[in-house]
Every structure is written in structure tokens, then in C-alpha cells.
Design goal:
The protein is mostly helical. The protein has a two-stranded parallel sheet.
Amino acid sequence: MVTCSALKRAYRDLLRGPEVQLVYLRGPRELIAERMAARPGHFFKPALLDSQLATLEEPAPDEGVVAVPIGAPPERIVDEILVATGVTP
């Protein structure tokens, strides 16, 4: 498993392949900012959030990306990802 932002479709197109499943963690800016503030010392600075969201090209339906809302507790989000990608939780 590898994680990265792949904010633009062109980046996702480079990553896409038969052994690759892309998951998009979808959530409102406010929730993302709140979670970022709760993890002090993290390498990603909260000041970068707005520029990242401005760059984001949300995955289109034809990309085959699994979109998972981030409102649930992390354990439920993980379970949803595992089910959606065919991995048994």
C-alpha cells in the first residue's frame, strides 16, 4: 500500500495500472483542517491546505476511483475502503 496526494487526473493516470486501486478520501475543508490541527508535528503544514484543495481535480466517474467519505471514525473508514477494494476486513 502506498499513499500520495495525486491531486490531478494526470498524476492518477500515471499511477493507474492493473495492480493499482485508487481511493479518494472525500471530505469538507473544515473537517480536514480540524483533523490536521489535531496532529501536531506532522510534516504537512495546515497553511498548505487551501493551495492543495485549489489544485485538487476531484476524480471523475470514468476513473474508477473508490471515493470514501471521511466523516466516520478512522476504523470505519478503513473498513469501508477494504470492502470497496475487495479486501476482507
